[in-house]
Specification:
disordered N terminus; elongated; 2 strands; two-stranded antiparallel sheet; alpha+beta; 4 helices; about 50% helix; about 15% strand
Length: about 150
């Protein structure tokens, strides 16, 4: 019923997996140890190369971020100048009902001029016409670039 005392404490031999060529396969622990050694055995030269690659990529990303920030400020400034420019143009005394078409003209002209970059920015300009006076209370952009300009 109980194994003989001679067998207590002895390890039974573990079965060995054999590949298709008859060679013993490594145990899962041996396999993982080999894999980890391969991953960590990068030469010093390769490590230095990788660090250099990381450095130039990080510098590029920082420079692009600065350029986008500068671009966003330039866009905001230019939209502010547009407000001033529109309001400085003298309204003809004989404009009458045609003056009511000015807001649509502004939007259409900006849309036409901005088709090249319409995927990242759309112009938004509010033009008020009151009597014989044109005012622009707001101007800006919408789209993916807009959060950078705000």
């Amino acid at each position: 019923m109980f194994p003989s005392s001679r067998l207590f404490g002895q390890r039974y031999p573990q079965p060995v997996a054999i590949d298709c060529q008859g060679n013993p396969k490594p145990s899962p622990q041996e396999h993982h140890q080999k894999q980890n050694k391969r991953k960590g055995s990068m030469s010093d030269e390769m490590q230095k190369y990788n660090k250099a690659i990381e450095k130039v990529c990080a510098e590029c990303a920082a420079d692009v971020g600065k350029t986008i920030s500068t671009c966003a400020k330039s866009v905001a400034n230019r939209m502010g100048k547009l407000i001033d420019d529109i309001e400085k143009i003298p309204v003809p005394k004989s404009a009458g009902k045609d003056l009511e078409k000015v807001p649509a003209l502004v939007v259409a002209t900006l849309k036409k001029g901005g088709t090249r970059y319409a995927s990242i920015a759309d112009f938004g300009v509010k033009v008020n016409v009151s009597g014989n006076k044109v005012s622009v209370p707001a101007a800006g952009i919408s789209g993916p670039l807009a959060p950078l300009v705000a």
